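Changelog-adjacent note: as of this version, every example in the card shows the full chain rather than a window. The one below runs 246 residues end to end.
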Amino acid sequence: MRVGLIADIHGNFIALESVLRELKREQVDRIICLGDVAAIGPQPREVIECLRELNCPVVLGNTDDWYLQPLPEGDDELREIAQWGLQQFTTADLDYLRSFQPVIEMTLDTDRTLLCYHGSPRSYRDVIAPTTPAAEVKSMLAGYQALIMVGGHTHVQMLRRYEQALLLNPGSVGLAGEGPDREDLPRNQHVHWAEYAVMTLQNGYVSVDLRRTPLDIPVLLQAGYASGMPNIDAWARSWHHPDRVV
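Full-length structure tokens:
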């Protein structure tokens, strides 16, 4: 069995398309999305429509919940972008967002269990970083057991051992290198790629590939500026860096 893991698309449909093309070539058996699908990017509705057609399990992320609760206080630019996205959604789009679950548990084959969340099972705002102390991780995972535990939120790819489990973060499809502002998370702005992971279970073995795929930045920026998203220049600056290579 081969499983494609995606997370933190953030309304970047161009990046999502690139990743899905690669997953199709990889002939994965299923795709799982770990949340934060639409907000903060120029194509929120296109991403929602694509995921609905894909019919894959989707975890509820913190920015997904922006559209289901009163918009967050604080950053006026983020509130304006979120409101702009919300105005595009239909009732069916919002019903689809409401179908996202905070935690998804599944069995991949006869004895391999998978636990999916956004930040952690405790909260979609939790951060599990490579350097998070084991005692903190234990608190976040309390009450849950699985051979493989996968989450997003940090926008940082990670493969880490925790007790008998593997902790995996596929990184961010739509905003790699940017994410929660914390000292324990490395930041690398002006990244020109999308991130995802492929997990393979075969003959008793588990293997994990953390992937990066280059993006066509001119096409990405063209789609962004054509979208009408507020504060598009700030979003576009994340992608402008002529010296950055994959």
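Structural remarks: Residues 2-237 form a domain with the Purple Acid Phosphatase; chain A, domain 2 fold (CATH 3.60.21.10).
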